[in-house]
Records
---
Amino acid sequence: MSGCADVSIISLKPDSTFGTLTHRIPAAAVPTGVAVIPRFGFAVVSNNTAGTASILNLDTNAQATTDVTVGTQPNGVAINQETGIAVVANTGSNTVSAINLTPLLATPVGTVTTTTVAVNQNPIAVAIDPDRGTSNRGLAVVTSLILNGASSPFGGLDVVDIGTSPPVKNSTASLVGIQATPTGVVFDPANTLFYATSSQGNVITAFNPDTGQTTSIKVGINPTALAYNFRTSTILTVNALSNTISIVDSQTFKTRATLGIGGSSQFAAAIHPFTNLAVITDQANNRVLLLPLP
């Protein structure tokens, strides 16, 4: 929670604890993004005004190590589930930081190392394909803003090879007609595509980093948060200005349903892969919404 400098743990177990707050783990100033690697039992949290990332041990409900310095105004976080490399998008310094989590599993515990690579302006969100990149050790796609001289800027998707150390930015795809940084991105392992959402353009864009091809469809007004369940082929956007969520089928890349929700829900949504339950932050009311998806 950005106002409390901590992370709340909410039970989704189908028992009497469902929907209850079980723990709060301290982070640092203005925690903004979070990603989890279940097999390590860790969560990585970006601390926006502190310029750090907190690594939390979800088994002990405490910090696994001291906060790691990243770039300025860190936002989105993703973790390569196969290699244990966490990637943080640093909005203020126009970089991404790669954090190797594996030393924390050693006995004795080792030192966490971080490497950084420059990307385009205003990177916000990041997603990872664990099987692309050098030696099939991961490729990240980072949402960004591309400056265009005297003309208006346009949204971009930077392709970063995280199979090397330090990471390397390989290419950038331009999003025509989008003049702001896309606010969310997820990876679809079934179709090996990335999906990015643009609040300025009210669209979801499918992106193939191998070909650079993009395809977009309209969703609700000001979509900020984006989530995906590969088991059900469900893409979800939270549309902040229309107070709706759009549910998109990734197989047909068409909207299946539009549902109304209350409150202001920006920048945070996830879907439980087995129950297809959406978890959405409601910033206006300091709560989370638990929504079973069709």
---
Amino acid sequence: MRKYHKILDNWRISGSIYRQEQVSMVPVACLDIKPDHKVLDMCASPGSKTGQVSEAMQSGSVNGQLPTGVLIANEPDVASYRL
């Protein structure tokens, strides 16, 4: 188990994966986002909810068409950005 944890931790440190708390997943799941919706994410860092919204918009598309909606991601806390 320690070896598995170390592998996951290395992936996290390198930026290959990130963890998302369940509480961050709930709003997107409850909103039932469609490809034509306009979504404003006001607390977007580190981007897990934003990615989830984008995925919801894409997965709702018909026949592989691009979504017609808009997703704006904003983060007021500059210190939370990871560069």
